[in-house]
Amino acid sequence: MTASHASRLVLPGELLGTAEEFVPGHGTYEEQGRVYAALLGSTHVDANDRSVSVRAVHAIPHLGEGDLVYARVDELKSQMAIVTLLSDASTNRAVPGTPEATIHISKAKEGYTDSLNEAFSTGDIVLAKVLQAQPTVKLTTAPASLGVVAARCHSCHGILAGGDRGLHCPRCGATETRKMSHSYGTLHAPLKARAPGGHHAGSH
Ligand SMILES: [Zn+2]
Q1: What is the helix (H) or strand (E) element at residue 130, kind and residue range?
Q2: How far is the CA of 182 from the centre of ligand 1 (A)?
Q3: 6: closest CA among 52, 39, 40, 48?
Q4: How far is the CA of 111 from the centre of ligand 1 (A)?
Q5: Ligand 1 centre from 51 Cα, in Å?
Q6: Would you say residue 193 has pLDDT above 60?
Q7: Which among 100, 101, 108, 191 is least surrounded, fewest beta carbons within 10 Å?
Q8: Among 37, 46, 47, 41, which Cα is nearest to 17's?
Q9: What is the pLDDT, as a whole number, of residue 187?
Q10: 168: CA distance to ligand 1 center in Å?
Q11: What is the pLDDT of residues 3-38, one digit of tens each?
Q12: Between 96 and 168, where is the model more confident?
């Protein structure tokens, strides 16, 4: 244990460390060898098994129809996107239980969508609205305010910058297309990789 393992408050998408340092536990996810917070909460490192977990600050009792949520795109199938619910967008509280949801291809954007690859890419963070909360969670990103709010470049994994004509990569110049939310870019800070192991003043 070092001072860097002291509990701290983290945002969804915030880098916790590398997979060599930590075993991803509850409330985290691993992507390309790095472990990230899946929800807003406080970090806990188990010194015995090196697992890192994030405990929700406040869990919401349940999701309701019409609620806005942040979710991460995990898998694109021909007819639907499989996503992990990260948090309630209005309260930023973690979504409890088994936080999996789907976005049907007809609900990804307005009009006909030939392939979900036009709308999303794996790893994207989307702002979505709950169409159905039980027995499974179904979401829509069709309205203009909804859709992808943070995405990474396919070529270099840099954070894509938003613009009127779509997304571009400031690092390598690639352009990409998504079903973007009007609030694209609001999650840039927590998605950015931070150097792990920084000391956190004030923790005990
Ligand atoms: Zn790039």
Answers
A1: strand 125-132
A2: 22
A3: 52
A4: 29
A5: 31
A6: no
A7: 100
A8: 37
A9: 59
A10: 8
A11: 456 788 888 888 999 999 999 999 999 999 999 998
A12: 168
Q: Could you tell me the distance, in angstroms and rounded to a whole number, from the CA of residue 146 to the centre of ligand 1? A: 24
Helices H / strands E in the chain, number of each: 1, 16
**DSSP structure class, residue 128:** E
Structure tokens at 34: 């790095």
Amino acid identity, residue 184? Y
Q: From the CA of 152, how far away is ligand 1's center (Å)?
A: 8
Q: Is 167 left (phi over 0), alpha (psi -120 to 50) or beta?
A: beta
Mind listing the domains of the chain with CATH numbers?
A: 3-57 (2.40.50.100), 68-189 (2.40.50.140)
Distance CA 50, CA 73 (A): 27
Q: What are phi and psi of 93, to 5 degrees?
A: -85, 150
What is the spatial distance between Cα 33 and Cα 15, in angstroms, rounded to a whole number? Answer: 11
- Residues 178, 121: contact at Cβ < 8 Å? yes
Q: How far is the CA of 137 from the centre of ligand 1 (A)?
A: 33
Ligand 1 midpoint to CA 59 (Å): 36
What lies within 8 Å, CB to CB, of 163 at 6+ separation is none
Dist. CA 84 → ligand 1 center (Å): 25
Calculate mean pLDDT across residues 78-105: 85
